[in-house]
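Ops channel
N.P.: pipeline sanity check, posting one input/output pair.
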């Protein structure tokens, strides 16, 4: 193992990564550099520095990447209206390529031979970290301790920690029993009773959102201003990307917005049940589709909807830095040139209702043609007859040849053999 002299570890300061830090020092006899990212998870990060110092780490990187995360990763993803399997807003998935980039950059800066992460061999994150790292540095060496060591239970981890003098933080009585991941965009919960899909989550599990039943009886109105597909102001006040998400998380959480409970298909092949709170992202998705509804051309909007599942799969599976994601992003960003305007929303007991949308410069909604009132001069309704007859041509031709598409065995419902009945 002595070919590895220095390794950069994605380090949270928790039990698992502290054990990994010590294990790397012992197993590889190498120097360890730590990287801790402030992604808006709401935790004090200085304790991670102190723990790393106590374990002999001399190069410690703790970086506030909240604005980078929101601007360069979350916002581009929301321009695509990305949802994995129709529900998941990709809160964990979208953070991993950012961490991978910083690991590689720090490795290059410090002359490290390898990078390491604490993702297990059963999950998606190992794929996301490693595909990202290899895309950015094809020759980087990656160490994944969970795929190498023989510590396969919590008891073994605790024993290792005790034997090596690694401080063990006892869980307080109100600590969560779930495996959790939090960042600016979302918080996730897995494990414990959630491993039984039929069991409803305990109300005490949720951290960011009120239950819809306990949300205020008075709705909250909020107005979002869009420029080129990104939110740039809330209620008329210009705000940064990270602040957009932070404020909408607070507003949405207060009104019970953003909870989901899903069973998803992991890239490695298994099904996994997870619960997520994404209040700000839920609001942003609804509002973005609303502003696109009046500013995007019909076929452009439909093409985006067709491509969205592929884009979402690409992110979920760890291919943020792939050629296909970059190609899709270029197309999506081009579509956003005219996505400018304002959306007014009403938040009420878990619901996000669009109650208004407008664009001073790019509105494609034409009241003169859409009206139910006198539209003479704007739209000639007689034109519809030829339009319909032309589009019916292939259907009428097939019907004349005896082909029927309406029912079983090509029969039009209500025609064909007469069924025999009794009684």
């Amino acid at each position: 193992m002595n070919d590895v002299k220095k390794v950069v570890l994605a380090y949270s300061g928790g039990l698992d990564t502290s054990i990994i830090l010590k294990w790397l020092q012992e197993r590889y006899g190498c120097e360890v550099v730590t990287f801790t990212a402030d992604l808006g998870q709401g935790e004090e990060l200085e304790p991670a520095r102190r723990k790393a110092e106590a374990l002999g780490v001399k190069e410690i990187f703790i970086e506030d990447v909240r604005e980078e995360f929101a601007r360069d990763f979350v916002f581009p993803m929301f321009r695509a209206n990305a949802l994995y399997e129709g529900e998941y807003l990709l809160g964990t998935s979208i953070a991993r390529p950012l961490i991978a980039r910083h690991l590689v950059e720090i490795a290059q800066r410090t002359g490290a031979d390898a990078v390491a992460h604490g993702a297990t061999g059963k999950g998606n994150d190992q794929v996301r970290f490693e595909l990202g790292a290899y895309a950015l540095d094809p020759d980087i060496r990656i160490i994944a301790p969970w795929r190498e060591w023989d510590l396969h239970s919590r008891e073994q981890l605790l024993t290792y920690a005790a034997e090596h003098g690694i401080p063990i933080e006892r869980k307080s009585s109100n600590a969560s029993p779930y495996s959790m991941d939090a960042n600016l965009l979302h918080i996730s919960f897995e494990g414990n009773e959630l491993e039984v899909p039929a069991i409803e989550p305990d109300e005490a599990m949720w951290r960011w959102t009120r239950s819809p039943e306990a949300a205020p009886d008075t709705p909250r109105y909020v107005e979002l201003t869009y420029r080129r597909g990104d939110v740039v102001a809330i209620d008329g006040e210009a705000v940064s990307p990270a602040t957009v998400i932070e404020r909408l998380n607070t507003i949405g959480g207060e009104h019970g917005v953003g909870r989901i409970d899903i069973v998803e298909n992991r890239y490695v092949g298994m099904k996994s049940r997870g619960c997520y709170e994404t209040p700000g992202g839920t609001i942003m998705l609804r509002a973005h589709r609303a502003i696109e509804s009046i500013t995007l051309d019909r076929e452009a909007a439909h093409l985006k909807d067709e491509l969205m599942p592929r884009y979402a799969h690409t992110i979920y599976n760890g291919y943020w830095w792939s050629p296909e994601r970059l190609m899709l992003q270029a197309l999506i960003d081009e579509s956003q040139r005219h996505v400018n305007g304002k959306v007014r929303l009403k938040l009420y007991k878990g619901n996000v209702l669009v109650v208004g949308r407008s664009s001073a410069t790019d509105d494609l909604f034409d009241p003169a043609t859409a009206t139910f009132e006198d539209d003479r001069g704007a739209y000639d309704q007689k034109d519809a007859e030829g339009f319909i007859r032309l589009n019916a041509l292939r259907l009428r031709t097939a019907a004349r040849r005896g082909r029927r598409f309406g029912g079983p065995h090509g029969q039009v419902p209500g025609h064909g053999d007469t069924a025999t009945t009794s009684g």
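N.P.: looks fine end to end. The longest helix spans residues 298-316.
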